[in-house]
Specification:
The complex is a heterodimer of chains A (about 80) and B (about 190). With about 80 residues, chain A is mainly α. Chain A contains five helices and no strands. Chain B is built from eleven helices and no strands. The longest helix of chain B has 25 residues. Classes of the chains: A mainly alpha (about 80), B mainly alpha (about 190).
Chain lengths: ~80, ~190
Amino acid sequence: MSTITCREALARLYEFLDGELTGEKAAEIRRHLEICEACYPDLCFGRAFRDALRRAAQGQAAAPEELRKKVAELLRSLPPDRDDA
Amino acid sequence: MTRADSFEREALPHLDAVYRFALRLTGSAADAEDLVQETFLRAYRNWHQYEPGTSAKSWLFTICRNTYLRQQERGRRHERVVSQILADVDAAADGPGETHVFAPAVQADPEGLFFNALIDRTILEAIDRLPQDFREVVLLSDLEGLPYAEIAGVLDVPIGTVKSRLFRGRRLLQKVLYEYAVENGYIPAREP
């Protein structure tokens, strides 16, 4: 039996999806979101949104090879163990 | 182990992540490349301040963002104003209450199926257009997967601020993507 309100479950939807909640709190929120007819669409929608962003993140370009070389050269050009402190 | 060795082992593997972050912060490949070089230069010089065992990626993001902000001092003030206006408009549009997802979109497509129809570039371009305060949290959380505590460290704000910016940034992004989906016929337009 869910002991939390829709308001609390929805307010913590992202914390739940982002893995910021643990243990009993996470389980409680999940139970509510999964069985509550009013809240369930928000759970599905939030998941679909997050998945789309994760997928888009995978599609991002890696650093150009030229930049990788430039950074490596830049670091080599510095004195090896200098401390600016 | 020399400083160069430990830097190469701990920091350099995050070059791609820092580049992606810089690209989405600046919106230009040329500016992102300059920013990445400056970031790694500063990081190397300040490597003694890095605490081993903590997240080098978050530490590099912090330096990258601070460097960017210094470069953008003037533009930044303008963006803050814009971002506040957008936040107010956004909050007013949904009315009071704790709406976390963009309500009209959930009503039209409760399972969020339209997100699957959007190509990656559309999503990334929509993120690029978010006001900076919101763009940063979305980049760090949704694209880079950082925990809230690390995001708070990178941005130097309380965790509560991270949460509220994520709320609003995501809702704004959902609104933009929803409108794009309606315009392009992925979801039928709602009757007024």
